[in-house]
Specification:
mainly beta, four-stranded antiparallel β-sheet, 1 helix, globular, disordered N terminus
Length: 554
């Protein structure tokens, strides 16, 4: 009989003790280089179609009160920073009123919602709680004033700017099926800050980035950029009509998939037109000045080292949550920990445990709210989460994998396969201490010699699963977000994957928010397969050698 609650101390078997997972090392903060603030309306006036009279939109993230939006981001060490647009030194920023251990899945800047001159910040939890934080001008702290639930139905929230022309910023939400909804703000920061949603479109799932650019054309109305996985960038001019807020799209250019994030930063140079930033996988940040018609001047450098950022406020990509790390168990029983540097590479390994030889380990995506992978061990039929018992009877399973939330409630779940090939789903309780009663989700899963996953592989924001046959074919099982039937029909990714002695799902390692895969071949060479966000992977890239020292990667 499987136990959903933790076992008592009397019936637990000896096991490895908990290990301390280090935090990624940030090092020196990157520095942002923006253009001088000098009005350049003459430049825009020379562009066909540019507005003769510019009505500047209010900045959405003016934390220091100088009239220009600042850059806010969460670094790889989990700390939130503000980079002032003035060029002053970056500083730490705190969202006060919640769980200090919680890592928010996304941070959104809708703007000044109540007209007091200070920006508001929306923080989205993995379980779908959206909280509003007031940020008084010049403060290093935002205070929670409102929360609402059910926001996990969206794979992307966008602080668009003023969509309907009432002078307040509004919010867009996109579902995994591609429906786009508008939430007009009410002017309140407590009680009911958002009006009921209005559906404003379908088919938005074709884009892997939605960028709220505030006002790009100088008419005071919010505009939008959208990028396809293939790299085509489109401009959607705002109409000011809440029922149909965007006019037909305009193709801006190709090759924008060279960037792993595109970020809306409002008007950075003082000409009244919203500009954008774009980051390469190598961590270089580029600044694009708007022409006033939805196109840009030649890019200029915004600085390097920006791969140290895990989440930009205003970034266009779907946020990821739950796992951005990997463990390796070597032949001497030493357990090492790696974290990605958001550039496709891994930081130097750190020893986190000894005498782990022979351990039956799995590292599911976060089962609580800290956004960190769990270290679980199955020992003598008892399942432990970082040293604490979950329950007995788990020895009937020969594979455990935790790709993330499979039931749509935002809480990390666990999949378990028994020796007959039956696959069961255990819904997590959000704290990593227990699971709900198992749900059988299929049979015949013993056809696979490897099950793995850590997030979204096909771009819809739902958790997926990868499965490899003994013949080397790798299949994708797209997630549905429904516990009773968590996967759609499998889709073949390709053959030849049995050339890898070890496969691991570390989450996103190149900073685009899409889940990636690592494989070690018979020679000990490590290869990276970066997700394209379409259910396929790009060409493999060699990351390093000598990985035959590991018995397994997790």
């Amino acid at each position: 009989m499987l136990l959903a609650a933790p076992a008592s101390a009397d019936d637990t078997a000896p096991h490895r003790t908990a290990v301390e997972q280090p935090a990624p090392v940030l090092g020196r903060l990157p520095s942002l280089t923006l253009p001088k603030r000098s009005a350049q309306k003459s430049r825009a006036a020379g562009v066909a179609g540019a507005a003769d009279t510019v009505v500047p939109a209010k900045p959405r993230l003016d934390v220091d009160g100088d009239g220009f939006s600042d850059t806010m981001y969460r670094a790889i060490n989990g700390t939130v920073y503000v980079e002032p647009s003035s060029g002053a030194d970056a500083y730490e920023y705190t969202l006060s009123g919640g769980d200090s251990a919680e890592q928010y899945k996304d941070l959104v800047a809708p703007g000044d919602l109540n007209g007091d001159g200070s920006p508001e910040i929306l923080a989205l939890s993995a379980t779908g709680t959206l909280s509003l934080f007031r940020s008084p001008v010049g403060s290093y702290t935002g205070s929670r004033t409102w929360s609402g639930n059910g926001w996990q139905v969206y794979n992307k929230l966008v602080g668009a700017g003023d969509v309907n022309g009432d002078g307040r910023g509004d919010v867009l939400g996109r579902t995994p099926s591609g429906e786009l909804y508008l939430y007009v703000t009410t002017g309140a920061v407590t009680g009911s800050p958002l009006k009921s949603r209005v559906k404003v479109g379908n088919g938005w799932g074709v884009y892997d980035q939605l960028v709220g650019a505030n006002d790009v054309t100088g008419d005071g109305i919010a505009d939008l950029f959208a990028r396809t996985p293939g790299g085509d960038l489109y401009f959607y001019p705002g109409t000011g009509n809440a029922a149909a807020p965007f006019a037909g799209r305009v193709h801006v250019g190709s090759g924008w998939n060279s960037y792993n994030q595109i970020i809306g930063v409002d008007d950075a140079n003082g000409d009244g037109f919203g500009d954008i930033l774009a980051r390469t996988t190598a961590g270089a940040l580029y600044y694009y000045e708007s022409t006033g018609v939805g196109s840009f001047l030649t890019r200029s450098g915004g600085g390097t080292g920006w791969n140290a950022v895990s989440l930009f406020v205003g970034a266009g990509g779907n946020p990821d949550f739950g796992k951005n790390e990997m463990f390796g168990l070597d032949t001497q029983g030493n357990l090492f920990w790696y974290y990605p540097k958001n550039n496709g590479l891994l930081a130097a390994r750190q020893l986190v445990g000894e005498n782990w030889g022979g351990a039956d380990i799995t590292t599911p995506s976060s089962l609580d709210n800290d956004g960190r992978a769990e270290l679980m061990e199955l020992y003598a039929g008892t399942l432990y989460n970082n040293g604490s018992p979950i329950g007995n009877g788990w020895g009937v399973y020969n594979s455990l994998v935790g790709p993330g939330d499979l039931s749509g409630d935002g809480k990390g779940d666990l999949l378990a396969r028994d020796r007959s090939g039956n696959l069961y789903l255990y819904r997590g309780n959000g704290t990593g201490t227990a699971f709900a009663s198992r749900i059988k989700v299929g049979a015949g899963w013993n056809a696979y010699n490897k099950l793995l996953g850590a997030g979204d592989y096909n771009g819809d924001g739902l958790t997926d699963l990868l499965a490899r046959t003994s013949g080397g074919t790798l299949y994708l099982y797209p997630g549905t977000g429904v516990a009773s039937k968590p996967f759609k029909s499998r889709v073949s990714i390709g053959g030849g994957w049995n050339s890898y002695k070890k496969l691991a799902a570390p989450g996103d390692i190149n900073g685009d928010g899409k889940a990636d895969v690592l494989g070690v071949d018979g020679k000990g060479d490590l290869y990276r397969y970066a997700s394209t966000g379409t259910g396929k992977f790009g060409a493999r890239a060699k990351v390093g050698g000598g990985w035959q020292t590991y018995v397994n990667l997790y």
